[in-house]
Structure formats: C-alpha cells, structure tokens
Amino acid sequence: MTELNDGKPRKIKNARAYSFTLEEDTSNFGIHEKGGIATQVKEPKLLNFKTLREAIKDPGDFLLSDFSKFDRPPLLHLAFQALDKFVSEMCRFPVAGSEEDAQKLVSIASLINENSGDGRVEDINPKLLRHFAFGARAVLNPMAAMFGGIVGQEVVKACSGKFHPLFQFFYFDSLESLPTANLDPSEFLPLNSRYDAQISVFGSKLQKKLEDANLFVVGSGALGCEFLKNLAMMGVSCGEQGKLTITDDDVIEKSNLSRQFLFRDWNIGQAKSTVAASAAALINPRLKIEALQNRVNPETENVFDDTFWENLTVVVNALDNVNARLYVDQRCLYFQKPLLESGTLGAKCNTQMVIPHLTENYGASRDPPEKQAPMCTVHSFPHNINHCLTWALSEFEGLVEKTPAEVNAYLSNPAEYTNAMKKAGDAQSRETLESVLECLEKEKCETFQDCIMWARLKFEDDFANRVMQLIYSFPEDASTSTGAPFWSAPKRFPHPLQFSTTDPSHLRFVMAASVLRAETFGIPVPDWVRNPKMLAEAVDKVVVPDFQPREGVRIETDEKSTNLSNASVDDSAIIHELIRKLERCRENLPAGFRMKSIQFEKDDDTNYHMDLIAGLANMRARNYSIPEVDKLKAKFIAGRIIPAIATSTALATGLVCLELYKVLDGGHKLEGYRNTFANLALPLFSMAEPVPPKVIKHQGMSWTVWDRWTIENNPTLRELLQWFTDKGLNAYSISFGSCLLYNCMFPQHRERMDRKVVDLAREVTDVEFPAYRRHFDVVAACDDDEGNDVDIPTVSIYFR
C-alpha cells in the first residue's frame, strides 16, 4: 500500500492500540502486506470569535465549571451587564451592605432582561443579585489568583498557538463560600485596614477567624509559595492568636525559579521554607509565621507531636508525592483536622477537601498504579522513545553508579562481600560478580585512550552486536508458536548501526561515555576530547573485533517476566570460580584502589550525564527506527521531571483558599464544599461535591473513619474488655503495632487481665513512650453476639 507514503495527513476512525481505519476509499490502493509506521498529526483548528459587542448580545454556549449551577452563567452574564450600567450611571460600584444599591442593581438587571428578547432569563434571582451587589466593589485574593491562572494560560495560548483557547465567555462564582449565617449590615463596614475589601464580602467576624487561625502548610515549593502569598494577603494567621507553621526539608534549586516566585537567584542553596517565610512576611508584616526544615513523617513525631496537631485549625498540603500526602491525611484523620489538598501536573490541577465527619479522607480513594513497560519490551523490543530512555537510564546507573559501588564494596571488605554472594547463590549475584570482575580485569582503564576504547566497544556491543544477535535469534520472517509473524505491531524490526567518525552523534556518544568512564577510574580528562577531529583520530585507533552470532542465546519475550537474569543450575559453582578470579585480580590492584560511583544529576549541563543518556537512547532509537529526541526532551523524560507551570498552580491555590473561607466559617454542610479538577489546556473545569465517608452502624451506634474511641484513666486489660462489652462488642484480639496484647485463644493471656494495658504494651514491644506522648492506640478485632465481625474505629488509651 505504497500510496500511503506520500506524507499527507489522513483522517482515521476506530483507533485502537495497534490498529485504525482510514476515512477514505482505499479500493484502488495496493495491498497492505505488513508493517508500516504511522505518526499522529495534530492539525490546526480555526476558531471564529465574535466581537465583544456581538458576544454580549448573543453569548452562545457558556463554558460550565459546576454542573449543579447549570442555569448560573446566563444570570451572571446579565448581572455583569447590570453592573456596567450601574457604574456608568452612578460613577461608582454598589456599596457593600447597601440594600438601596442592591435594589437598584436588581432593577437595572430586570430592565436589561426584559429587552433581551430570546436571550431573556426566566428568573433573575434577586437574592443572588443582592450578593453580587454587595461584593461588586471588592477584589478578593483567591478570586484574583484563580482568574489570574486562567487568564495567564490564555495569554500563553494566544502567544504560542498551543492548546485550545477559552471560547468567548466563562463565568465562575463561589457564592457557597459566603458565611452561612445572615450578617448584620454593620459587619460589612470598612475598618480602615488592608482587609476592608474582604470584610465587605465576608464580614468582620470571619476576618477575625482568618486572623486567629492556626494553620499548618506542608511544603514550600510551587504550591507552597502560592499559598503563602495568598494567605498573607488574606490576613490568615495575622492576629494575636494566629500562627502559621510551614515546613519543607528541601533547598532551592535553579529550576525552581520559573514557578516558585518567592525565591530569587541569590537564594539558591538556601532552605525553601525559611526563604518563603521571609518573603511572605514582607508581603504582610503582621503574619505570625514559623519556618521549619523537617519532613512530616513518623520520624518527626517528636517535633509534630500530639499537642502540635491538637492546636491546629486547618492543614494545607502543598506536597509533591503521594506517600507524604497519605501520612498527613492519616494525621488529620486521627486528630480530626480539616485538610485542604491540591496538586498540579502541567496544565492540569485538582483540589480535594477533607472535612472531619463530612467527607471521605484523601486515602479513601487511590489512583490506579502507573503502567510500567514490560522488561522484555524495554530491553529487546522498544517501540517508543520512552522505552529507549528507560533502558538508557538503567544502563547509565549500571555502568557509572552501581558497578563502581559494587567494586568498592568488594574492595572495602572482600571476605564479607564474597560470603554474602556465596550465601545468595543466585543468578543476580552471579551477574553482579561478573560485572565487578569485568570492570577490574577485562575492561579496566588506566589511560584515557583505554576509556575511548571502552566507549567505542560499548557502542559496538550495544548498537551492532546485540542487534545482530537479536536478528539471528528472530529473523525478519520469524513466526510465533501460533504461526503469526513475530515482528508484528507493536514490535519494530531492528537494524544494526555502522559506527562512523563522520557522524556527530556517534562521536558525542563516545565523548560522553569515555569522559564518565575516566571519572569512575580517576583518570584525568584531556582538553582535546572536545575537539571532534582529535577525538575521531583517537577512536580510529581502536581495533573492533568481528562479531559472530551465537547459538542458543535466550532472549526473553514474555511480557509478564520480571527478571531478565539467565538462571543456571551451576550458579553456585560459577560464583565460587568468579570469587577465585576476583581474589587474583585484587592482588594486582594498587594499594587503596577505589572507583568513583557517579549518581545521576540531571540539572548540571556540564557533567555529561544527560549527554550519555541521550546518546544511549537515541542510538537505540535509531536501531528501531524510532524518532530521536534532543537532550532537553531526554532530560524531561529520563529525569522524571513533573511538568509544573505557574498558571495551574495559581488556579489550584485560589480554589483552595475559597474553600478555606468555608472551613473557618464552620457552618457549611457537605453540599457547600467543592472538589475540583481543571485542565487549562482544553480548557475544562469540573467541580463537584466531596464524597461523604462510609457509615458503619451497630446497635444504635454509628461511626465513620473520622471517629476515634477514647478510654481515659489508664485502664487494665479487664476494664478495656468490659468497656467493649458495654458497647455490645466482644473483643477477641487486641494488638499494639505488630505485637499482640491479648487473644482469647491463648490461655496464658488471661493472666494479663489485671495489668495496665500500657504496661503490657511496654513489655511486649520493649518500647518506652516518650514524655510528650499521653496516649497510645490499639487495634481491636471485635464481633457481635452472632459472631459477625464489626469494624470499629481506632481506640486510644490515655495513660497520663
């Protein structure tokens, strides 16, 4: 079907993982025999925008953010027209709390609506317009942050032509953020403070709650910087009773500066939390802030102890990993503290509200695990550049990090190292010893020319010999056990590379590989290595032996296989022989010989790390006719860089701060809160009520994951069991951590009945409780009178 080779884009349908249907008549085309590579093409889309004058009269379809407010955008469209008319007539905005101004706005809106013809709104909702009038004068930080993120992304779209622009109108409101109680008009009066705009919307009582809040912000990166800016401008923790604690154990790197705007060039290398706290204090000198450099995890519970958590009002997560989020979630669950969760990924962002007794906790739902490419695909059958880069990173770590580290481990304590290998006696130990012996004997480098020879032979082995062996084992016409062609999609038939000193990419690979090899052996790198002509002359001196394919080489093709090591029945014998050779080799090494283990560092452009990884990946991609990538793209993938941009960060933090108003007001029900997912690239905004927690019921009692049962006065085991009995529960097993305190099946446990539970916990676990700990938690397995297991909350026993 050679007619498809003209390079023209074609529309397709029925797209599947490895097949699609062309949307055109192919009856006159030749026959498709096999193979072929298709590349997805994103074609430009032409959008026709109305002028502002036309769009106001005929707005068309609105972009929705909250499907529970389906009728809200047309009403807000009318409200803003009425506001413009009010301002043009009165030369001012409506006064907050002024019923007269609110009524005038309603009258103007009603008049505009009557003259709107087919665009007329059925119900102008005077109550909503009243709220609209009260807040029209104010500029609120969370709304400014949120819309700033949206508009900022639209500016980038207009400049770059990348992503789909927001089409015409987008209206957003968060009326549910307003206090639930009716406020007296005096609540909205200005106090001659920097928060007067906020007071004119939410009232002075909520402002006082903001100022006296005790907040804990976990993380001081992109999200953390935005949060600190927002909180400082809102006046959070700026009162006499308020305090904001921020913690982050990371330091500032150059790559942070593009989106973590509280940091400057001269802050590189300094603690993130300290610098961010100082910057936030400059924004609002009244901010009561304490910066810590501790991770929030079980090891720092002496810092973030019970008293610390109990005194908090709200916890705000600004983290970048799931494990830390889950730990903070468990702490908030335990101490029943609201948790405001958010995250970003490129142009996407999400927010989740975790409110005690109202919503499920963060850990109640998990994203599916990220799919990993099968090992056989990465090592022998790659079909995209990600596979090549995964393999390249693995090769890099093996060559310059793991093998030198193994060499040093052996040389530091030969007896202990070899005994461990003998004890393991498996294929992995055998392969590790082979790589150590190879590094110290066959491939040992003493001069830089040796490093060049190693690099040149490495190229030949990886990109020529291995491919020829693969083709020998699986020829182009090979078939599977079912008779299907072996080299069918997604597999790509490879081609060995012919090294050439005239190919700059080949020379760049040799240069990066030889420089890093020299670094591991402590060999000085000559300046001439950067001269292509002189490097080419040095490479030409290398004698490359001819390759002969071998029979019986096993190449893993099972996608479910997780181990590529070739096991042998003689592994143990081979390991003993390798150890004998290593001992002889060690005797010939200079005294104190050690190698340098190099850890991957993506952000240093002068260390040749990304040059080697990009070289390995691109040469492998060339083997399999996969499009190559530049060093920047390779760094993005191999460095596992999570794309982060300021626009989605601003949007996420603005939305979270709108929820903070609700949390501190304290009167909102579940339907008043919002979880959000947004994608600024599409654009898409999806807001929904949080999911309530699962309720468990038993004999007139009910509880959720938020509940914690407490028993005071340092009970004995007998008193604890009776306490359960009084609740209609039979506790047949009680444990503390991984240790069993009581089980009804063990007769000797009955002797513990009159002992204090805390003493049992100390004895069984051999752990002494620190002075700051007033209680400990036990897990009890219970059933009811009919023998049915009952899931109960965590039980906390107070002994001090």
UniProtKB/TrEMBL annotation:
This is E1 ubiquitin-activating enzyme. One of its GO terms (cellular component) is nucleus. Keywords: ATP-binding, Ligase, Nucleotide-binding, Ubl conjugation pathway. One of its GO terms (molecular function) is ATP binding. The active site is at C376 (glycyl thioester intermediate). GO terms for biological process: DNA damage response; ubiquitin-dependent protein catabolic process. Its EC number is 6.2.1.45.
